[in-house]
């Protein structure tokens, strides 16, 4: 546990000390909230939420913030490889799995902080929280998204050496994942073939879980969302741990 805690603390301190990283990560979520939210509020009709499009996309934008922050925390692995820190860590008498878990928890924590910042901003832009219980439910799903996609980022970063290549690959993967998550449009309005793709997208269950917590309504049962996301997070942690153990430095 000391190993996991130390790696976690290092990641959190690096994040909190990097003010430019925190501010820069707010750009795209705020763009979606301000430009899409207010720009399409009177144009897009959401079933049961007429002229309230901005409230509809807030859970999706929060999920997007958590998604991007968690996935790109995997670049820390490549950074540590290039500067020799990872090699020094791996020769220590600790398990690689413990190091990977510390990295995963650290990335998920920074992603959660980023998501909470966006959530606070959204409250000043017309957002709302259904209840204290709903707020805790939203945080639970944010944590699950952070764990899942931080582990995904580590899985991709483990065999890679080039930071630019990692960013290109992650952009290729993450933008379709976000686009097909129901974050900016109702799943029920999609044509059938896109709807099926949305249902096999793990982020969909995170978005709908956050939406259930913040708005008190969702298009997928929150319990289904919870178990689907727990299953994906568990798989990715084991898979990421497997690739991390096989990593050569």
Properties at a glance:
249 residues; 75% helix; 12 helices; mainly alpha; globular
What is the number of helices?
12
Structural class estimated from helices and strands: mainly alpha
Quaternary class: single chain
- The number of distinct β-strands equals 0
* Distance between the first and last residues' Cα: 24 Å
Shape: globular
Largest sheet data: none
Layout of helices and strands, plus pairs?
Elements: H1 2-17, H2 19-24, H3 27-39, H4 53-72, H5 75-82, H6 85-90, H7 96-123, H8 132-157, H9 163-179, H10 192-199, H11 202-215, H12 222-245
Helix pairs in contact: 1-7, 3-4, 4-7, 4-8, 4-9, 4-11, 7-8, 7-12, 8-11, 8-12, 11-12
Could you explain the architecture of this structure?
This protein is mostly helical. It has twelve helices and no strands. The longest helix is centred in the middle third of the chain and has 28 residues, at 96-123. The two termini are 24 Å apart.
What can be said about this structure in brief?
With 249 residues, the chain is mainly alpha-helical. It is built from twelve helices and no strands. The chain is globular and about 55 Å long.
